Amino acid sequence: MVRTQAFPSALSASRMAVRALILGNLLFGGLVFALLVASLVAEDWVMRGLGVRSDGNSATLIIGMRMVMVIGIASVPFTYVVLTRLLAIIETVRLGDPFVAENAARLKTAAWALLGLEVLHLAVGAVAAGTLSNTQVDLDWGFSVTRWLAVLLLFVLAQVFDDGARMRDDLRGTV
């Protein structure tokens, strides 16, 4: 069942934006990984480039910075999952049939991945409060209820899609 789209240019722009975000996410992960490796291989050079003074008190700061890098790298697969599921949902919208059980599963998977990202965000906050609290590094970390509400919204939306797809299938069976 293919329907014409009311806003094909917005849908096309969304597809392009999500594809660009997928590439940007992978590039981000690669660059942070390279920075982490460089910080291990040439610590003095990298830390001087990042503006960290080399003194006896910088060991904790360097460990904290590396922990944030590792968390940043760990966020890449979660972000990839969210974006690829979104791209697949956009494709079903383009084809004119978004209310399918597969999209419910995609939304639920995206919700779990977003939950994982929020846990990683809390880990960055813990690092900021712990190892980076008395240093010159300011991560500008803050807790946001909005992001946690987005996680809940995705779980609810996944259930709505699942129930809607099931009801539509039942309706098809009665006709």
Description:
- It contains five helices and no strands.
- The protein is mainly α.
- The longest helix has 38 residues, at 58-95.
- The protein starts with 7 loop residues before the first helix and ends with a helix.
Count the DSSP helices. 5
Note the overall shape.
Answer: elongated
Largest sheet: none
Mean pLDDT across all amino acids: 89
The residue ranges in which pLDDT falls below 50 over 5 or more consecutive positions are none
Topology:
Layout: H1 8-41, H2 43-49, H3 58-95, H4 101-129, H5 145-174
Describe the structure in brief:
This protein has helices at 8-41, 43-49, 58-95, 101-129, 145-174.
Any key phrases for this structure?
0% strand; mainly alpha; 175 residues
